[in-house]
Design brief:
This protein is mainly alpha-helical. It is built from 18 helices and 6 strands. It is globular, with a radius of gyration of 23 Å. The chain binds acetyl coenzyme *A.
Length: 424
């Protein structure tokens, strides 16, 4: 273990350093306050390691993303979403028996308690499906109370992965006034989701294998991304020993914001707006650069990736393939490519290292699959579930876990006496 030296007001302090398996160096400041009286200030946590984690590795400068050591490109090409769920949650790829068992369990826990169906009656048809997803996930804990026993955690993880897909599909059916379509045990996780979303009782529905493959890819690419806003939220809530459902329901809320997962919906809204406004990309690039305008290029920029987002590269490649296989010609895909080209040639974006992120092309594929725009972030959440579960479990199993409780630098009023109402 190395050390770093801090010189504070003329006095030197030795701080231990930790080095991760990929050579990342962290300065351990656990004793900083007790030895110096000072704390660190890092608004937005751009330089703060909140934990040690063995789940996902990102090198934002080189555009590297690996789940449990496996490159995202290989997982995207060669695995299925449920294999990736198993990998993230259990740490290793499953063998044939383990995968069969896992898929079986996912299938057999996909039905919702019949009483939960009634909850949907209480939401307005226009209610955003992310709000419905988060409250329904929180409600699952009332049916399956938490327990810290390993078997109970395993079972609740399966239930969550499985029932969240049913909740998502039911919330869509509710919004369009169609009857709920119950899960089918003979279908794969992804095919079953498509079936619950798009089948109607009046006629048979065949799942298009192109759509099933595309959904697998999208879910895999979203499955984990180390300490992003929603995952950190899950860990923050979980650190108080709140149960899995409560912690992940909070993660869904964090994901819904437009600077995080909500960006995929905003990208399509932005592209549509540019199209309806005559297709002048330059105008919108100018607006994004103008500090007096609040407009940002949605789907552009990332806290960690400063060269390219490997997920966006894969999605751009697959967007072309999926649309041509489905025989769809979406003008928004062309629009997105043109916008990317214009922005990437512009000094403002080059200097700030702003590139398309995962949300930039994902919406084009979701659209081609027939998924409505307000469901895009729900799709992101379904993909991110195994990551959230893996992080919650890692935190739960780590004996070093303490409740997360940051400090602050207080900038408010100093001591002053109370002023009586009549004297104010
Ligand atoms: N359009 C225009 N300018 C941008 C954009 C953008 N999309 N993103 C960043 N910038 C500019 C900022 O104005 C800032 O400029 P300045 O240095 O002159 O002040 C600089 O680039 C750095 O931006 P920050 O906001 O400080 O970067 P931060 O790391 O805090 O934010 C974020 C990252 C939230 C992703 C940001 O790039 C953004 O708002 N992007 C659009 C929303 C989006 O696509 N979010 C999805 C992110 S990926 C995900 O969560 C799945």
């Amino acid at each position: 273990m190395g050390t770093a030296t801090l010189n504070l007001e003329g006095k030197e302090y030795e701080l231990p350093t930790v080095v991760g398996s990929e050579g990342e160096v962290g300065i351990d400041i656990a004793k900083l306050r007790s030895s110096t009286g000072a704390i660190t200030l890092d608004t937005g946590y751009g330089n703060t390691g909140a934990c040690e984690s063995a789940i996902t590795f990102i090198d934002g400068e080189k555009g590297i993303l690996r789940y449990r050591g496996y490159p995202i490109e290989q997982l995207a090409e060669r695995s299925t979403f449920t294999e990736v769920c198993y990998l993230l949650i259990h740490g290793e790829l499953p063998n044939r028996d383990q995968l069969d068992r896992f898929n079986h369990d996912l299938t057999y826990h996909s039905m919702l308690h019949e009483d939960m169906k009634k909850f949907f009656e209480g939401y307005p048809p226009s209610g955003h499906p992310m709000a419905i997803l988060s409250s329904m996930i929180a409600s699952l804990s009332t049916y399956y109370p938490g327990s810290s026993r390993d078997e109970a955690i395993e079972l609740n993880s399966i239930r969550l992965l499985s029932k969240a897909a049913t909740i998502a599909a039911f919330s869509y059916k509710k919004s369009i006034g169609q009857p709920f379509i119950y899960p089918r045990n003979d279908l794969s996780y992804t095919a079953n989701f498509m079936h619950m979303m798009f089948a109607v009782p009046a006629e048979p529905y065949m799942v298009n294998p192109v759509l099933e493959k595309a959904l697998n890819l999208l879910l895999i690419l979203h499955a984990d991304h180390e300490q992003n806003c929603s995952t950190s939220t899950v860990r923050m809530v979980g650190s108080s020993q709140a149960n899995l459902y409560a912690s992940i329901s909070a993660g869904v809320c964090a994901l819904s914001g437009p600077l995080h997962g909500g960006a995929n919906q905003r990208v399509i809204e932005m592209l549509t707006r540019i199209r309806d406004d005559g297709g002048d990309y330059q105008k919108y690039v100018r607006m994004a650069k103008d500090k007096s305008s609040e407009f940002r290029l949605m789907g552009f920029g990332h806290r960690v990736y400063k060269n390219f987002d490997p997920r966006a590269r894969l999605l751009k490649k697959h967007a072309d393939a999926v649309l041509s296989q489905l025989g769809i010609d979406d003008p928004l895909l062309e629009m997105a490519k043109n916008l990317e080209e214009v922005a990437l040639a512009d000094d403002f974006f080059v200097e700030r290292k702003l590139y398309p992120n995962v949300d930039f092309y994902s919406g084009i594929i979701y659209r081609a699959m027939g998924i409505p725009t307000n469901m895009f972030t729900v799709m992101f959440a379904l993909g991110r579930l195994p990551g959230w579960i893996a992080h919650w479990k890692e935190l739960h199993d780590d004996p070093k876990t303490r409740i997360n409780r940051p400090r602050q630098i207080y900038t408010g009023a100093t001591l002053r006496p109370f002023v009586a109402l009549g004297a104010r």
